[in-house]
Amino acid sequence: MKTDIEIAQSAKIKKVTDIARSLDLKKEDLELYGDYKAKLNFETIDRLRSKEDGQLILVSAITPTPAGEGKTTTAIGLSMALNKIKKKSIVAIREPSLGPVFGIKGGAAGGGYSQVLPMEDINLHFTGDMHAITAANNNLAALIDNSIYQGNPFRINPRTVSWKRVIDANDRALRNTVVGLGGKKQGVPREDGFDITPASEIMAILCLSNSLDDLKTKIGEITVAQTYDNKPVKVKDMGFQGAITALLKDALKPNLVQTIENTPAFVHGGPFANIAQGTNSILATKTALKLSDFVVTEAGFGFDLGAEKFFDIVCRYGKFCTSAVVLVATVRAVKHHGGVKVRNLAKPDPKAVERGLENLGKHLENIRKFGMKSVVAINKISSDTEEELNLIYDFAKENGFAVSIVDYWGKGSEGGIDLAEQVVDLVEGKVCHLTQLYDWDLPVKDKISKVAQEIYGAEKVDYQLDAKKDLRYIRKHGYDKLPVCIAKTQKSLSDNPKLLGRPKDFLVTVRRILVSSGAGFLIPVTGKIMRMPGLPKKPSALQIDIDNSGEIKGLF
After folding, report:
1. Domain boundary residue among 200, 221, 246?
2. CA-CA distance, 275 to 430, in Å (whole number)?
3. C-alpha closest to that of 381 among 423, 340, 345
4. Does 313 lie in the same domain as 420?
5. Which end of the chain has the lower number of beta carbons within 10 A, N or C?
6. Separation between Cα atoms, residue 48 and residue 285, nearest integer Å
7. Dihedral sign, CA of 118, 123, 125, 130?
8. Residue 467's domain is classified under what CATH number?
9. Alpha-carbon gap, residue 401 to 423, rounded angstroms
């Protein structure tokens, strides 16, 4: 059996100008990065704004195993299948981060015969967006520290600087650092640390911006520290918003590539859903909606994380409506929630499937809270038995949901024509309706409780001392009308990664509430979630290699 990268390298890839032509775009509409990658220029994006929108389909999933359940593969495959049945479709997904690529999960370009290409480029440096975001973030950090060193004109209390440096790697050694050591000329010593680039507020802002002006305004609103009398210091106060935006002028432009079957694909932006909003840029999604009848996008991790944030935050800032949800479930994930250890998931165990169905059931309940039409897509793999597949299929049907078994990984678009047809039946010709979970004007604690109790199933929320201090600061300085983007483990519906299935009677513990005033949301940090992951004992980097001709192997 061929590996993902072998399949990708044997595909018949078209020039990106040909892909653009299928969308009625010309070469002049593009900024080319070689033959197979391009960015859309701002003039083209502006010209398209007056066109009608197509239908937006969101792909989400049940609570995943560490390897993921094929959500991106399903999104790519569904878009290809829609084109196969003569429905003009584009897939819009996130860019991979080098952290997971070199870590445990691998890349984020799909898999098997459902990938976006050129797979190697997309999974590595691509068009340089990640590097631009890293540079913008770290230049701002340098400017803040320099301002403190050069007489501190904004009266910043160094102990309150909240703007961390970032790097696009899983590097636990950088979680906590000290900067400014080495004597008076090296700066002011203070505790600091690194986050991973997808956790940067710059990443969140880039993916929530509608234009360069909007991007610059949002960057100006970033809160980086407090004064000695506890007043917030923003980037616009320091005058750096123009310089930081200049570093991002190309990164804001959506990237156009293609799938393995030459379906157009926008791959742009990459915030994680366990620590940020978890979806690609709204500029890419909105542009795709102007160019096709159906846009398929995905939200990271389970429905409790990516999809909730997509509906309550991204759709509000993007001013678009989602027509339907495709919820990805797998036999292995359901078995895992039924108590089977990861190493034993390939062994048939119908009883474990029956026990684990309660996790799927909770996600189906959550879909209804947003008024969404939905199809359950059972992503089939070779170790699944008919009995196990049928248990999930029947459960979804009994709960009133359409359901389809797909194998986009093994068969490409042909592995899920039925799903594409069911999606079209659900949404074509129908008016989109979306219900938000909470009103942004509610008190912060009420917004957090709404998500924790209704989406996660928590009994109550507990606030540690630092979180209580944060709440007072948030109220005092007028940040309390922002939505909440909860940082939580992706491994459980709760904030405890060990609680599988459908936990009940649990407590969600909020340690801190960070202010992302530029992005326009608050980040309640729950449980032991961290914004800088670590590498596993045997990272994926051990498999990646390159030969003398420049051909890369081992990516997946």
Report:
1. 246
2. 34
3. 345
4. yes
5. N
6. 12
7. positive
8. 3.10.410.10
9. 12
Closest CA to 127 of 15, 38, 17: 38
Nearest partner of 342 among 329, 330, 333, 351, judged by Cα: 333
Residues 422 and 281 reside in one and the same domain:
yes
DSSP for 298-343, please give it: E-SSSIIIIIHHIIIIIHHHHT----EEEEEE-HHHHHHHTT--GG
Of 507, 506, 524, residue with least CA distance to 515? 524
Would residue 470 count as lying in a domain?
Answer: yes
Q: Which one of 371, 394, 427 terminates a domain?
A: 427
Q: What is the CATH number of the domain that holds 140?
A: 3.30.1510.10
- Parent domain of 150: 129-246
For residues 420 and 156, what is the distance between their CA atoms, to the nearest angstrom?
55
Cα separation, 75 vs 115, whole angstroms: 10
Judge if 284 and 421 occupy the same domain. yes
- Looking at the structure, tell me whether residues 284 and 413 fall in a common domain: yes
Shared domain check, 291 and 421 = yes
How many domains does the structure of the chain reveal?
3
Tens of pLDDT along the chain (556 residues) come to 799 999 999 999 999 999 999 999 999 999 999 999 999 999 999 999 999 999 999 999 999 998 889 999 999 999 999 999 999 999 999 999 999 999 988 888 999 999 999 999 999 999 999 999 999 999 999 999 999 999 999 999 999 999 999 999 999 999 999 999 999 899 999 999 999 999 999 999 999 999 999 999 999 999 999 999 999 999 999 999 999 999 999 999 999 999 999 999 999 999 999 999 999 999 999 999 999 999 999 998 999 999 999 999 999 999 999 999 999 999 999 999 999 999 999 999 999 999 999 999 999 999 999 999 899 999 999 999 999 999 999 999 999 999 999 999 999 999 999 999 999 999 988 888 889 999 999 999 999 999 999 999 999 999 999 999 999 999 999 999 999 999 999 999 999 999 999 999 999 999 999 999 999 999 999 999 989 999 999 999 999 999 999 999 999 8
Pair 75, 187 in one domain = no
Paired with 232 in beta bridges are 226
**Is-contact 279 300, C-beta < 8 A?**
yes
Specify if 68 maps to a domain: yes
Say how far apart CA 52 and CA 235 lie, in whole Å: 36
Residue 507, domain member (yes or no): yes
CATH code of the domain in which 75 resides: 3.40.50.300
Q: CA–CA separation, 219 vs 225, rounded Å? A: 14
Cis peptide before 118 (omega within 30 of 0): yes
222 φ, ψ to 5°? -60, 130
Classify residue 189: in a domain, yes or no: yes
My answer on whether 241 and 273 are in the same domain is no
- Look at strands 223-226 and 232-234 and give their pairing: antiparallel
* Arithmetic mean of pLDDT over the chain: 96
Query: Are 140 and 79 in the same domain?
Result: no
User: What pLDDT, in 10s, does the model give residues 337-353?
Assistant: 999 999 999 999 999 99
Residue with tokens 């010309």: 26
Q: Which two tokens stand for residue 167?
A: 């790097």
